[in-house]
Design brief:
The chain has seven helices and seven strands; from the N terminus they run αααβαβαββαβαββ. It has about 210 residues and is an alpha/beta fold. It binds S-adenosylmethionine. S-adenosylmethionine (SAM) binds next to loops.
Length: about 210
């Protein structure tokens, strides 16, 4: 029975790349929106990335001199790889394994970001995470969130895991009491080894907490 359960347990495709130092799961470059809005941060900004994977975004910030970075992911392989990459690149950040559905904020952040991760938990869980993240963001702090929507059906590579696809525009509603610096709704083509070319529908939001 245990054997059967093991067989049935699906493993997401990125885990293989997380296990190999020489492979790149998604991109070795930081997210373009992070680059676009980085001018709003300062080097002492307290930064949190949820679902950082192998960490290309936080590694980039650490290389730029950001000194207060927390980054977590559910994947032990992803975090182990990120820690090794920190050593290789000679940078320091706090990387740890955590589940965003159970994550409890213990401090405030100036920047909270998440790319391509929130839709892998149930909708009520990613909404609760964003609510808690907003409460634990300093005045003037920035969120950058990217989530897949159901405007296009989940592709076969992620369908078993994409349990919390957003409705188009749903994430923007969660930020109606913040200043929206950017909101984008778009469809893009994607490709991974052993998976045919496919489409994802996505929302991306950059929002700033008002100063009182
Ligand atoms: C498509 S990958 C994106 C990784 C990274 N953000 C990037 O842009 O390269 C999705 C990530 O979400 C992580 N993830 C899935 N469920 C999670 C959860 N409940 N808590 C934290 N991370 C989770 C996966 O382990 C994976 O690293």
């Amino acid at each position: 029975m245990e054997e059967k359960n093991k067989e049935e347990k699906k493993i997401p495709f990125w885990e293989e790349a997380y296990q190999n130092l020489g492979d790149v799961a998604f991109s070795s470059k930081p997210n373009a929106t992070l680059r676009e809005f980085e001018h709003l941060f300062h080097k002492q900004s307290a930064v949190l990335e949820a679902g950082c994977g192998e960490g290309q975004n936080v590694l980039y910030l650490a290389r730029q001199g950001y000194s207060d970075i927390d980054a977590f992911d559910l994947s032990e392989n992803g975090i182990a790889k990120l820690k090794r990459l920190c050593g290789i690149q000679g940078v320091e950040l706090h990387a740890f394994v955590a589940d965003l559905t159970k994550y409890r904020f213990e401090r405030k952040y100036d920047v909270v970001m998440s790319f391509g991760t929130l839709h892998f938990v149930e909708k009520e869980d990613w909404k609760a995470f964003i609510r808690h993240a907003k409460e634990n963001t300093s005045q003037g702090g920035i969120h950058i969130m990217q989530i897949f929507t159901d405007a296009v059906p989940a592709s076969e590579d992620i369908a078993p895991f994409a349990v919390g696809l957003a409705k188009d525009g749903e994430i923007r509603e969660l930020y109606r009491d913040w200043e929206i610096l950017q909101f984008k709704s778009y469809v893009f083509e994607d490709e991974h080894p052993n998976v045919p070319r496919h489409l994802h529908a996505s929302n991306k939001i950059v929002a700033r907490k008002f100063k009182i």
